[in-house]
């Protein structure tokens, strides 16, 4: 069962007012600016975006863009980034409520983040379908891999 709340964060839908904060957080995680990618992803009719903000200082603590796929009525987080797996869990829970009739989730979690795999397998009850190596390390690109909970499709990371 996923948690609905996190005591240190407020959760809000991503919109034009908070989008610059999301873009800045994304750049901290990825190591470079992906403004166009995020704008286009949020703008897709099949997508919703949610962010977490620290209640004490207003700092962004995570975000996710969630897309529906007609393939087997599946929801795909693309991406799901958070400073903790607990925040990612609340983002997942609340965003998934927007998708009535969609009863499956597909997540690509990298084995470099074992907490993300635990969230997918233990909390969501997802099965590991396949594993594959990522073709770079934290030394190749300046990413904060601990904040990358789900990044799908990973073969296109970081784009």
CATH topology: Aminopeptidase
Q: How many domains, as an integer?
A: 1
Distance between the termini: 31 Å
Number of continuous helical runs: 4
Which blocks of ≥5 consecutive residues have pLDDT under 50?
none
What global shape is seen? Answer: globular
The strand count comes to 6
Q: What is the chain-wise order of helices and strands?
A: EHHEEEHEHE
Range of helix content: 25-40%
> What is the level-2 CATH architecture name?
3-Layer(aba) Sandwich
CATH class: Alpha Beta
Helix/strand structural class: alpha+beta
What does the radius of gyration come to? 15 Å
At the fourth level of CATH, the homologous superfamily is Gcn5-related N-acetyltransferase (GNAT)
What can be said about the biggest beta sheet? Answer: 6 strands, mixed
Mean of all residue-level pLDDT scores: 82
Strand content: 15-25%
GO molecular function: transferase activity
Protein name: Acetyltransferase-like protein
Keywords: Transferase
Active site: 138 (nucleophile)
